[in-house]
Amino acid sequence: MNKITILQNGRIIDPANKVDTKGDLWLQNGRIMAPESSIPAEARCINLQGQWIVPGLIDMHVHLREPGEEYKENIASGTLAAATGGFTAVACMPNTRPVNDTASVTRFILEQASRGSARVYPVGAISKGSGGLGLAEYGELKAAGVVAVTDDGLPVIDSQLMRRALEYAASHGLPVISHSEEMALSRNGVMNEGLVSTRLGLRGIPVEAESIMVYRELALAELTGHHVHIAHVSTAVATDLIRQAKKRGLKVTAETAPHYFTLTEEAVAGYNTNAKMNPPLRTEMDRQAIRMGLQDGTFDAIATDHAPHSVLEKQVEFDRAANGIIGLETSLPLSLALVRDGLIDAMRLIELMSTAPARILGVAGGALAIGDVADITVIDPARQFVLTEDAIVSRSKNSPFLGWPLQGKAVLTFVGGRLTYDDLPR
Amino acid sequence: MTKEYRFQHKHLLEMGQLTAEDMLYILAIARSFKEISARSIKKVPTLRGKTIINFFFEPSTRTRLSFEIAAKRMSADTFNVSASTSSAQKGETLIDTARNLEAMNPDIIILRHPSSGSSMLLSQHVNAAIINGCDGTHEHPSQGLLDLMTVMEHKGRIEGLTIAIIGDIAHSRVAHSDIIGFTRLGAHVRVAGPATFMPSQVESLGAQVCTTTAEAVAGADVVMALRIQQERQHDPLIPSLREYACFYGVNRKLLELAHKDVLIMHPGPINRGVEMSPDVADGAGSVILEQVANGVAIRMALLYLIMGGDKGGVVN
Q: Could you say which architecture CATH assigns to the domain A56-361?
């Protein structure tokens, strides 16, 4: 019989079961078990006074770069970064080389992930090769282990293709994730269009490049009656469109990323390529609107859009630099700031970072009931640290938060009862 | 009121980094150097033994030659590297190429590059002083300074003047540098052109946006037209050069609205008959070729100051 682990004296936060209480959590055989009347002598007891015990965090939007761009990240390094950041599971986007548009690529990813430090849920492509012409084989992809489809990184330009994707994916029980971008408006743009882009002489991407496409996706969700998930929302206008759509009862869910509620376009000053991503950082007004959306339930999830790039893509001219930043190791402290700021409570934070992503993707985790899989994150909300390049576990170091003092971090991460990260002082 | 002043900048990356005091000082030095170009022996030994590289990723006649002449008149050794002959063609990154140039110990690298911010990037990776010879659609600071010098020579001041800049403001690094330079020295800058040529929130730079050229030119002391580029693929900015010339071209009739002693400026190269009619370019008040002449003096001053030749001075 497997040894029992008892997490003692922690603050147990379990949004799925509306629990926020001080207590112990018993684990055995990779699952949460009912406590026994007395503590067995051989049990491993871990005192977690002052720490939070929460269902394992799930990042539903990451790029692991394998296969194809392993010099930026691979599944081993990406899942280790996930475990370090308190994540027990990640959903990886299909824009690898080759694109994850066939079962064989999905199986390869899962094979690599079987030796990793977090669960990996592959997301398949909407269209073959994400080329925007014809549907990928969702039935086969689903059977191989795909949990959703998206052409992330590229919008689906053809509205009819998007309509068919929503319909056909629904038939296979797969959510469709939309990277919402009207390319004709964003073409050649490298940052938010506005005051800062004018000052820096950089070509701008207007807010409307996002909101026009978000509106189309919502309209197609209404037309088809099927679920659409809007990825990495960056603007006030799109937030409001999603809020209104939810009020009307549309099947829409949405995520935003820590950088959109933490930074603004001002971070680009000095041509900082670590502040370049797509969609771009917006204005303070947008940042505030994103925070309101997190508070009022417009956003279901916080996802990082973890996008590793090496110095080859980042130590170059700003307009030639690749889009994207890493996020797995900074998401938790940046999101905990929302709790410290009084914007949301701890229960809502864990809902955003664990329970809701599990529900949207239809995967295990996100709850701490007896019998549930023992995917657990222990958080020290008071731990302070400064993010340094040396400390980053991800193979790429492209973070705009380098040098930032951060507060709150994962100290223990369990995946199926297995310890994948341990930074608990003993 | 005078006080001790010292030019403190290692690099010249943008007008935005210069205070009004800096600009006036550069103009004063340039004015004192201008006379060198009028001598029969056009050479002083000031920068003897200094190595200056013109590192140009974009075609340029005026700016490159102007920097080269400025350097040579001050006895520096100059070398030209252009994108078509450099390793950039072989896929070498900007930083790598620059580091290799650096290994040959240049004192100043003058960079012209199509990416905004490229000069700043270079300044973070090499020890040589960097002068921005214009970067993308960001800035062209030496042009901004020579424009200030030209206006100053004719008007005796910048403060209180009204400057009208007409054309493609959004894609013009010259406009950007001029707006900053003229407003920082107290002029009132108006910009005009079709809305497709106006950058987002251009007012934030200090310019007043006019809906018509007539509004911009009314009572103006200086009228500057910018070079219009051919229509860009995927981005229909104007229907045709013909229509642009009809509605936004600077011609004699338009200039009747300006101040009677209006100065006519253009950063070149001119599309005659498009943004400016030929009689205006060559006619009364045109200082377009003086801009070019002053360019050499400004660049001599910049090379001199960047090399730390300045022993400090007094500025009003």
A: Alpha-Beta Barrel (3.20)
